[in-house]
Give the backbone structure.
Amino acid sequence: MNYVFLVIAVIFELFATSSLKKANGFTVFLPSILSVVGYTISAYFLSLSLRSIPIGIAYAVWASMGIVFTAILGWFIYRQKLDLAGIIGIFFILLGVIIVSLFSKAK
């Protein structure tokens, strides 16, 4: 169940980050509020996941999945292109998450 909380935390972090782009430095009211609320909900669910997932593992998964999916959203929503170095770097981040998630015995 705690990985479900972690997935929910990632989803709200993505929502908040997407809203942050539209908030334009917190000068646009609604996206600014949505961003703050999204990050708050994300932090809440991240904290729930910490009941059984070690903090280093949970944070690594949360942060890196946020990076990977934010780059993908940026590509599709904001038409922000990634060069080869960006794609390779994001691939290694994703590979790191897979390795940590599948093989780490940290408790």
In short: The first helix runs from residue 2 to 23.
